[in-house]
Structure formats: C-alpha cells, structure tokens
Design a protein that fits this description.
- The structure is a homotetramer of 158-residue chains.
- Chain A has 158 residues and is of the alpha+beta class.
- Chain A has one domain (43-157): Thiol Ester Dehydrase, Chain A.
- Chain A contains 4 helices and 6 strands; from the N terminus they run αααββαββββ.
- Chain A is globular, with a radius of gyration of 17 Å.
- Chain A starts with a helix and ends in a 7-residue tail after the last strand.
- The model of chain A has no long low-confidence stretch (mean pLDDT 84).
- At the A-B interface, helix 1, helix 2, helix 3, strand 1 and helix 4 of A face helix 1, helix 2, helix 3, strand 1 and helix 4 of B.
- Chains A, B, C, D: This is Acyl-coenzyme A thioesterase 13.
Chain lengths: 158, 158, 158, 158
C-alpha cells in the first residue's frame, strides 16, 4: 500500500510547493475553465483547410511529468481539445466525448515545438470521428496518434 | 479560422486571470512534477488487493471544463496515473505508455466523489495491460472505463 | 512489393485448397450470414445476469491463424458479437458499431475452452458502451479485453 | 436468455446450410490458415511506398453480416492483417498484436471496391504502431480507421 501511496499521493513537501496557487472559478458555459487555460495556453491555430486544423504548440514545463517529458495525460488533453475544435469548425454536432484512444509513439520535452493536426474522419448520425496527430515540428517525428469520437446530444436539431 | 482560434486559443482576459500563477520547476526523476500535482492532488489510495488498487478522489474545480464537468483530459490523466500505479505496485515493467483508450459513459461535476479502480489485466513480455474504472462513489454509476498499456524498456533485465 | 504480396495475397496452392467451398447467400435481415456462422458456430450462452452475458466457446481450428493461435480478427469478432448481444438483451439501441478497441493479453489455441463475458458499461443518449472479456476457462487467464461502442440510429424512437 | 441465444447461437437450419463445408487443416507456421484465406482472399497489393502499403479489396459476400454490410469483425481482420503487412514489409519486429482500436465511420456492401492503406506510425523499442484506413475506392468515403500495435518478442535480436 505504501508503494501505491508513494506513486499516487503527494508528499507534504510537494503540496507546500504549490499550495499558494489559487485556481480562480469561472462562469460555466461562457468562460474557459482554468483547466483549459492550463492545458492549452500557448497553442496557436496556424491554418485551416476543409476538415483539418493545423496548430503549433511549444511544450511548456507545466505539462511535463516526473521525467521532464510531455505527460501522457497532457497529450490526451490535446487530442481531446484539437479533435473537438475541428468538429466545432466544421459545424458538426459535438456535445459529448464518447471514446478516445491514443498511441504514444515517442516523447517530447519542454521547449520542443509540436505540430498538432486535427482531422475529421467522418460522421454518422450525430456521431463524429476525428483523428489528431501530434508531431515534433522540427524533426517531423510522430509523437502520438489519437482518435476522438464525439456525439451530439441534439443531433436532430442540426 | 476565427472559430478555431476562439475554440482553442485563450483571450487576453482569460490569460490575465491566471497570469500571476507561477509553476515551479521540479528536479527530474526525483520529484513529482507540477503536472502530477495538478492532476492528482487529493487522490487517496484506500485499499490494495492482488492486481488491484482502489482510490477515491473528490472532483476539484481545477479539473473541470467549460461546462463545469470533469474534463475528458483529466479523466485520461487518472487512467494514465492509476493504471501506472497498479503496474508499479505489482512490480511489473512500466517505463513507457504505449496505448490508452477510454470510453466516456457519463460525467462528474466538482465536488462529486469518485471511486477509481485500477486493475492489471495481464502481461506479455515487457508489456502490461491495465484497466481503470472511474465511478461515481455515491451512485455507483460508471463515468469512464479506460485501458492503459505500458511497455518496459528494459524488459530483458526484469 | 513481393514481401507484401507474400504476406497478404494467397498463393495458387492455397486458393486451390479451398476453391471448392461455396458460401451460400442469405436473406438480408432475416437470416444469419455465412460470416456469422463462420465466426460464431459453437458459441454457447450459459447464463444471463442483469447487464451481463456469459458464454463458452471452444476454439475451432477454422479460426486459427498461421501459428495455430486464435486469430486476432476472430477475437475482434467475438468482442463485436458478444458486445452486441448484451446490448440486444438489455433492449438498448444498437444499430451501428462506432468504436471497438481490444488489448490482446495472451493467446488461445484450437481446442482451448474460452469463457466470454459481455457487460454493459453504460449508456448515454443512443450510445451504449460494452466490455467483453475473453478468458481461458480452464486457467482463468485473460486472453483479451475489448470495448465495443454501439450507437442506435433511431434513438429518438426508443 | 432466449434473446441472447437467438442473437448468438445458430439455428439448426443455419447450421445445415453450411454443414457440408470442410475446413482443411494447415501446416503451422508454413501455410496460410483457412482463416487467413477466408478473410483475405481477393485482396491485392497495388503499391508500396516507404512506410506505406496500398491495397484494393472487393467486398465478398462471405464477409457480410445479417444486413449485408461488411462485418465489423471483417474490418478488424483487415486492420490486423494490413497493419501486420506494413510492419513486415518495413522489417520491424512484429510477433504479437498487443492493441487494436477501430472507428467505424460508414459501411460497405458486397461488391463495393475498397482501398486499404496501411502505414507505419512509429516505433519504440520492439513496439510498432500502425494505422490502417479502409475507404470506398469509388467515392473516397472513409469506412473505418484503425490502429494496430504490434510487439516483437525477440526485439533484442533485431
């Protein structure tokens, strides 16, 4: 049990390092949440083509894990948000994430510049499938490939 | 392009709300990163059984999205970390995440108490598969089911 | 190109071995297709509990791959069909498969007896998530874990 | 229980329709199994580029489901085999499938001509990630997108 605690729970010292941070509340539905600020700040939309969104993002230290690599969860955030953005841009129904899957093919460290490409794969009823590629912009190496499926609750109105 | 910018990039106002936060650096390999603090602070390891870890976690406002729901990316973090923890506890090789997939079945809001169960599914060579269930602790409703596959780089030494 | 041809395309000899087989047509919507016969013949429904279906299946030689192991695609068939069955039994909308993901944790050979457990994970709108475990019935070892998401086209009528 | 039996188990009539088919045994490791013949017969490798394999495949009646659509499991077979082929062509280690995930975006019926594109996404240690697109060759519409991860048991020798 101690091993699991050490792995998951934070020590007092770690808690103290950040206890002074205050996360301001946001107005639901109208404002970006702190979470979105935290995961996306610094992302840039470079170009849009039909069914595709191209972004760049410099890996910030705040999203790195124990080893200084871009955290897997932070990659999942990018797949979630950039997949959502491409569906939004295309005007497809998108209220709810239903499935997400990601292959992690290599890693990125703080300061690396990423190219993130979101694509609509297709649509069936109120359900939209997207693909998100996360690449090292300098080397072209693929860091992760994700798929994100969204389902529009109010599909019938669209 | 403006739609995508509005969806992904942050406005000046949003940036100002949080610009005062400083994310302290961490010593690689020895300290938890801010990212881990941010995604996991408050998680509690309740119980360990062979191949299983049971945790509770009260959804903090800092992990909610625009609509005030636990963000999909934050659920992915939990799948990543709790899956990693159960592999770590079992002493299986676990250096690298190779695949993660998640079904989102319902949602949670700030203050909801979650039960998070990580299980080892099996192991093949240096590769370990885990399953992570995220439930509403009060109602028992399943919020997400995730799978996380990890691969040990130094499998031959283990 | 020759390598890919050798891997994917069949030689004349292989074609000759089976060229005498005739696959009878079926009446759409009312009859099982040959495909279903081929992938499922021999499966037995042993027990049903709320939200769960328990089956047994002895691995037939016809579903084994080059190495004599139950083919990955055949495991995918089981995840697809048993996931579909549990949704059908529960009376949930299920017209269309939208996502399927599988972790392969060990293997089975011809003659091995499998236990296959399908579970409803949850439902959101017309969308249902299921989990399918494929185990060796004798040893209890997990062979594969799959998730299958189905979406009901006519959700509004249900 | 009757509903599940009706869904999964075959009736006597269905069994009789195909009981005359004999599935010839194959020599392990050296011959294609009947399963591979059954799922792949008719596939054609059209072109190879670095890291990519392009195939065409006309949907045969033998792979259609109850509704006359290419079965989800048959699509999974194609993702499995074409993903395996591209790894094989590239000379990457590939002994074992570890993960497969598929989004089903539209459907195909008997006689439709498919284009199937397998791509290497990347490689980490003995682990290789591939992506497989299944398209309608006439309309260009995407039918399915799959990812297939393979792991080489003898990675250290390669």
């Amino acid at each position: 049990m101690e091993k699991a605690k050490a792995f998951l729970e934070l020590t007092q010292g770690e808690s103290d390092r950040v206890s002074s941070l205050a996360f301001p509340p946001h107005r639901l539905g109208t404002e970006c949440s702190f979470y979105e600020y935290y995961s996306l700040r610094g992302i840039r939309v470079d170009r849009i083509e039909p069914g595709q969104v191209f972004c760049t993002f410099k890996v910030p230290p705040r999203l790195t894990d124990r080893e200084g690599k871009l955290a897997s969860g932070a990659i999942a955030n990018l797949v979630d948000e950039v997949g959502g953005a491409v569906v939004y841009v295309e005007g497809l129904p998108m209220n709810v994430s239903v499935d997400m899957s990601i292959s992690f093919l290599s890693s990125a460290k703080a300061g690396d510049e990423l190219e993130i490409i979101g694509r609509v794969l297709g649509q069936k009823g109120g359900y939209s499938g997207t693909s998100v590629l996360v690449k090292n912009k300098t080397t072209g190496e693929l860091i992760a490939e994700g798929r994100h499926s969204l389902f529009g609750k109010h599909a019938s109105k669209m």
